[in-house]
Amino acid sequence: MGLNPTVCNRYVDDKDGNQKLQNLVQKQKNSMRNSLALHRLHAPKTQQRSKFGVVPPWVIVMYNSVFFNNCVHHPNEKKKEVDKFCIDCLQSFCSHCLPSHAFHKHIKIRRYIYSDVINRQDLCELFNCSGIQTYLTNKAKVLFLKQRTQSHQQQSSSRDYKCSICGKTLQDNTSLYCSIACKVLNIYRDEEIFVGLPLTKKQRLRQTRKGVPLRSPMF
User: Fold this and answer.
1) Is there a contact between 96 and 73 (Cβ–Cβ < 8 Å)?
2) I need a labelling partner for 213 at 20 to 30 A (CA). Which of 70, 87, 89, 198 fits?
3) Is-contact 146 65, C-beta < 8 A?
4) How much is the pTM?
5) Cα–Cα dist 50/111, whole Å
6) Mutual angle of helices 180-188 and 57-64, in 10-degree steps
7) Where do the structural domains in the chain lie, given as residue ranges?
8) 3-state SS, one letter per residue, for the chain
9) Paired sense of beta strands 135-137 and 115-119, if any
């Protein structure tokens, strides 16, 4: 969504036009960010850097996107499931929408144990995947996009390797995170960047504050 050229010209001709135009652009950016259901896209002061720099904003948008629903633009077509994400447009789309994104960078989303996963090789070209647990499906190495659910868990013991963020069991000691989401959370730490992401018990305890004690009435 762009700015109206007439509005831009009016601000440029005005005495304080540049400042007003900057304020208008900033207001539009904030509105777009809220419409994408994001909290914060800026990098915190204490962030960790990878060879690809900070976490790209599109990773956050991709997490908050819904996949494998029917495409609203092609309701009557076959194979209309939304299973791709455009990095340039910051939106999910189906195979019938592909011509509109022909020259854009996009990622294929796959399904594994009823969860959204991404081919590791596809993502490594755009994001530092080191430390994320890799899983094998159809002879392809994939990464979980979101935190693994309890249904993915096997019986664990104290000797098992666990995700440093959510505590889910890992398959080996070379991995630190069970998913892309957990790695991003480790980088941003206390930043609220994911919508509706369940907190671990350790995180809940860290965020609780002592309130006013409630006493039962005395009769």
Assistant:
1) yes
2) 198
3) no
4) 0.63
5) 27
6) 130
7) 48-192
8) CCCCHHHHHHHHHCCCHHHHHHHHHHHHHHHHHHHCCCCCCCCCCCCCCECCECCCHHHHHHHHCCCCCECCCCCCCCCCECCEEECCCCEEECHHHHHHHCCCCEEEEEEECCEEEEEHHHHHCCCCCCCECCEEECCEEEEECCCCCHHHCCCCCCCCEECCCCCCEECCCCCCECCHHHHHHHHHCCCCCCCCCCCCHHHHHHHCCCCCCCCCCCC
9) unpaired
Q: Give me 90's structure tokens.
A: 């910051």
User: What sign has the CA pseudo-torsion 49, 160, 180, 194?
Assistant: negative
Query: How many residues make up the chain in this entry?
Result: 219
Query: What is the rounded distance in angstroms from the CA atom of residue 162 to the CA atom of residue 136?
Result: 18
| CB 29 within 8 Å of CB 42 | no
Which tens digit of pLDDT belongs to each residue from 45-104? 444 444 444 788 899 999 999 999 999 999 999 989 999 999 999 999 999 999 999 899
pLDDT at 101: 93
Q: What is the tens place of the pLDDT at every residue in 9-29?
A: 554 455 565 666 667 656 655
Q: Is 183 exposed, middle or buried (0-12, 13-18, 19+ CB in 10 A)?
A: buried
Phi and psi, residue 55, nearest 5°: -70, 125
